Amino acid sequence: MTRATGPLAHALARGPVLLDGGLSNRLADQGCDLSGALWTGRVLAERPDQVESAHTAYVRAGAEVLITASYQVGDDPVLLERAVRVADAAARAAGHEVWVAASVGPYGAVLADGSEYRGRYGLDGAELAAFHRPRIEALLAAGPDVLALETVPDTDEAEALLGVLAGTGARAWLSYTVADGRTRAGQPLAEAFALAADAPEVIAVGVNCCDPADVLPALEAAASVTAKPLLAYPNDGSVWDAGTRTWHAPADPVPWPVEAWQAAGARLIGGCCRIGPPWIAGLRTALHRPPPV
Q1: Do the annotations mark residue 209 as ligand-binding?
Q2: Which of 166, 222, 262, 269 is the one with CA 20 to 30 A from 31?
Q3: Helix (H, G, I), strand (E, B), or coil: what is residue 98?
Q4: Which residue ranges form the domains of the chain, and what is each CATH number?
Q5: What is the pLDDT of residue 1?
Q6: Is 272 annotated in some ligand binding site?
Q7: Rounded to two decimals, what is the model's pTM?
Q8: Torsion over CA: 54, 56, 60, 64 (sign)
């Protein structure tokens, strides 16, 4: 089997679907240079073959959804289209069904200063929508299966993203980055998830790039306001230092209570920064997904 033939939403209705892991850490393990504001986008621009190799490593680990390298690209239509095309190539070469999710990173990602972990950029909703609209249009034109509105730090940006999507017929998931039971900007999570509860474009809501300990409370908050499938792809509990552009790992590994996440409604489960193919292979076993061909 090659690229997925049915909508991701239908697969989520049947059971769990396995996401990939962190693209940046995999590219670093391959010896790629991620310095500069473009981050993984730099490798996409200079060595797209390395990005495809990284995607392929996750496919071989059993990932059923590949998130593109467009998170920090900005509005460059050439790179945005390339990000989808490279992931698509890896998906088509897979021996199992694989969907492509086009990453729509937050405004803070292009600032390359860790702003996505704070939110509150000083922009109003119209300015945020104007930033996201051409990126979303370019990504949709490239034909992904779904948009990944990910690492969203506050409700202002979520509202802007949902406004851009409204009426397009596109499909997307909305994923916040959270801490201590709130968005990174400090808003209540039930309020944040409720924004997407009635949005027909949104097929799932949840969290990513957060401490694994923050996942379950966030999923419970989401389940209290929406019946949509939930998603979770945390990092390993490390904290990003924007000044040194390094991760500070936790003193002790943070457990991943995957069964509890599923019981709370999580159907789309994977990893974010610092989660590599071996971890995704372990998740495949935990989720009882079939082995990759």
Answers
A1: yes
A2: 269
A3: strand
A4: 8-286 (3.20.20.330)
A5: 44
A6: yes
A7: 0.95
A8: positive
